[in-house]
Every structure is written in C-alpha cells, then in structure tokens.
Amino acid sequence: MTQTRSQVQNFSVWQAKHFVVAEGVADGEPLSFADELVLDDTYMLAPDARPHPMTLEMPADGGPFHVAQASQTGLPAAQIYLDCCITLMSTDGTTYEGIVLVEVVGGGVEEIYLLPLADLHPKTPYRLVGIDRQLATTRFAEAASVSFTRGTHITMASGAQVRIEDVRIGDRVLTRNDGPQPVRWIGETTLRAVGEFAPVVVKAGTLHNQNDLVLSPDHRLFIYQRQDKLGAGRSEVLVKVRHLINGKTVYQRDGGFVDYFQLLFDQHQIIYAEGIAAESMLIDHRTRAALPKHLDGIAEGGHGFRPHMNYEVQKQLVSHPDAVALLKRASRS
C-alpha cells in the first residue's frame, strides 16, 4: 500500500530568551514552562528579537511532534511538547494568547519557545494573567485545522453555492471522489489575523475562481493538471496555499480578526470552494483536540488513507514566481 507522508505544520516562534520578565517575581528571567511561571509578572519582547520559522512534523504513525525545521537553536528530530497556553494583557486591557513549546533532546530541555496567537510588539509590557495546561492542545488543534473564512461559497450536492456560515450539519456537500457526502461537524474559530494565522487570499480569476477564495495558510488546494506544467510527474497535485503566495494574485491578508470555519466529513474529502477543489478538515494527531466529545469515535480512529493524500507537492516545486500562472494554464479546459 502507498504510504502517507508525515504531516507538518509551519509556524513562526520566539525564543524564550527574547521574552523576558521586566517586572515581577521572576524579574530578568526568560519565559519558562508552566511550573515556573508566576501570574502577574510583566514580560517584554526584546527590541532586537526576530521570529524564527519552525516546522513541526507528526510522524505518519502518530507519536510526539518533532522539529523538522526550527530556529537557529532548534535541533532536527528533537521532540516538541505543548506545555501550556498563556494569556497576556497589555496596558490597554487587550488580551493575547500564546502557546509555550518545550523542545526536549535526550530527556533534557534544550529550548523553550513562544508560539504567539497574536502579534506581540517590542518595548510593550504584557502582564501574565492566565496559565492553562489543558488549553494548549486545543489552541494548537484550532490553528492546525485547515479552514475556510466567512463568506466562502461551498458547492452543495444540488449544485447550489452556499456560504459556509449557512451550511448545517447533515447538509450534503459535493465531494470530488465520493459524490454527495453529509457534513458531520462544523467548527468555528475567531482568531487575530496576524502572522502565521493571517488568511491567504486567492484573488478572483487566479485559478478560475469567480470570487476571492480566502483560506488558512496551510490549507491545501487540489489541482488537476491537463499538462504537467509543474514537473510533478503526475496530473494530480495537492498544494498548500501558503506556497503559492506571490504578493499579487495570491497574498496574505494581515490585520484585524478572521472567522475560520472547518468542515468535517466521515473521511478526508476534496470539496469545492468558490469553484476551486480544496481539502476538508483532516483528523490526525494535530487536530483531534479541536473536536467536541461526541465525535470521539471519529477522532480516536482518525481519518483513513485516501489516495489524494500522496499528491502533495513540496514548496520547492512551486517556488518559482510564475507557479500560479502555470497551474492556471495547466488546469484550463
């Protein structure tokens, strides 16, 4: 049987040494794991701090997260643990959340990172007002769940184009491989549209879509090439929308808030959004914590193998500036 690849998730993180207590019990100490954090301590981001990319890999057979690509201090194959979710408050009362990640090598803590769920700014005081060990997996799952934004038109089994916020559990949606399929669950999350969580816009007409298609960055589009313009060695390709960003016809929209919606079926599906084939939510080790308890049966087993899971192409194959135009021409009737 064809084997599925490991699932990966891309983020930008801050090293703990750049997020330090400026006032409080742990004055001068960097961010740490939950057991060492003190409520009401005030943190500041160092002026020279720079976010670093981190790619977390989940082995195809499950198990702990590993670092596939990390910041300068990150070590490949190191284990990563989601320690806790922290809540910070700025002086104007605005709250921000972040996930504390602990990197472990050989049983010892190698590095601690902060995965911010909103933009943090240097020289701004942030008071620690919440520490939640259980919430970290849920927030990570929400971030890892591929999502459509409010207003996205979904193709139903009848051919009707329905805005995603009007789709209901039990409604039948047209899928590429299995025909009409009922929706088992609809998730809704509101996040700050910043950094890695800012949605990606595929402008109308870019891939034969009538309207703008706005998605979460790691959402994968399914494209059938009538001619293999990419050199993928096959007609079918699955491409993360973040890898198609060119700043013009595909770009990341940063700022404000975004309403994300997740559509879940009994199996991972390719559905149609604004006329573009795109994946539905995939249940795996990263995302199952986002599901409610009554779906435990699906969550525990996860989604089984589907042939399209092996169609994903890596970033290098779509890194040239005209990749989007090539895909549009390749998929033209």
In short:
With 333 residues, the protein is mostly beta strands.
So how many helices?
A: 3
| Helix-strand makeup class | mainly beta
Element-level helix/strand string: EEEEEEEEEHEEEEEEEEEEEEEEHH
Fraction of residues in β-strands: 35-45%
Description:
There is one protein chain. The chain has 333 residues and is mostly beta strands. It is 7% helix and 38% strand. It has 3 helices and 23 strands. The protein has helices at 135-144, 296-301, 323-330, and strands spanning 7-15, 19-23, 42-45, 52-58, 65-69, 79-89, 95-105, 108-116, 126-132, 148-149, 153-155, 161-163, 172-175, 179-182, 185-192, 200-202, 213-215, 220-224, 236-240, 250-252, 257-264, 270-273, 276-279. The strands form 7 sheets. It has a 6-stranded antiparallel barrel. Strands 10-21-15 form a 3-stranded antiparallel beta sheet, with no helix packed on it. The radius of gyration is 20 Å and the shape is globular. Mean pLDDT is 86; it is low at 1-5 and 70-74.
Write the layout of secondary structure elements.
Layout: E1 7-15, E2 19-23, E3 42-45, E4 52-58, E5 65-69, E6 79-89, E7 95-105, E8 108-116, E9 126-132, H1 135-144, E10 148-149, E11 153-155, E12 161-163, E13 172-175, E14 179-182, E15 185-192, E16 200-202, E17 213-215, E18 220-224, E19 236-240, E20 250-252, E21 257-264, E22 270-273, E23 276-279, H2 296-301, H3 323-330
Antiparallel strand pairs: 1-4, 1-8, 2-3, 3-9, 4-5, 5-6, 6-7, 6-9, 7-8, 10-21, 11-12, 13-14, 15-21, 16-17, 16-20, 18-19, 22-23
